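We treat protein structure as text, and this decision shapes the records that our systems exchange. Such a record has a labelled line for the sequence and another for the backbone structure tokens. The record that follows is passed on verbatim for readers who wish to inspect the format:
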Amino acid sequence: MVGDLRERILSIMDQKDHWAWPCFTRPGLTKSQLAVHFRHEFLTYVRDFPVLLARVLGQGPPAEARAPLARNIDEEETGHYSFGVSHPELFLQMIDGLGIARLDVTAGALEPEALHYRALLDRYSGSAPWFVGAAVVTIFVEGSMHERREFEGTRRAEPVDDLIVRHPMVCFYGCPPDAMRLTRAHQAVEGDHRRDAWETVLRHVPDGAAVDAVVDAVAEAHRGWLAYRDGVARAMGLPRGKVGV
């Protein structure tokens, strides 16, 4: 049953991609467009990601599941295992490097799809059973379309300095490499977080209906995320038909 659950979640993660993503891997966006994008990222989940994790922990998982959740919260909120700075603050340091006013990112209106997606994250992170919220928050939100390659060991780990030098925010939008400490922090701790997330969920989800509940929640999160990204693209003025041009 563990293999079935893993494969069903991976099949969803394989599709965690969005049509507007190529716009963020090349030049051409204005600072105003970047501010819209980063405001939605920050206010929808980056700022409160430690809170979402803490809500899962607050559901009372078994002792062996608490330590990895607590380590994740500790790093996100304090930077305990990296720079001694919270990840939301490291995110804002990148915003500083881009020359975008923090207030343009830390305050302002969100698209309806972003509000719906955040409500979904609040609902799952704050409701029993805890392992459903853990799957949504630690596997889906923190994960990417590369999860399968991570499992198979076929994704090459790029040196962090090379990763930063080639990062679109550095290459195309003038962010100084020194302001990209969030990328360094992720590179330093993300491997452990990914292993902890999968091991915690796969080990503790009971057979039967609980498996379907987890898969259904991750699938709903994926649908909510796609709609959220659609809303952000609309707010940025990215016409779908022209993105690939």
About this structure: The radius of gyration is 18 Å. The chain has one domain: 2-235. DSSP finds 13 helices and no strands in the chain. The chain has a mean pLDDT of 93.
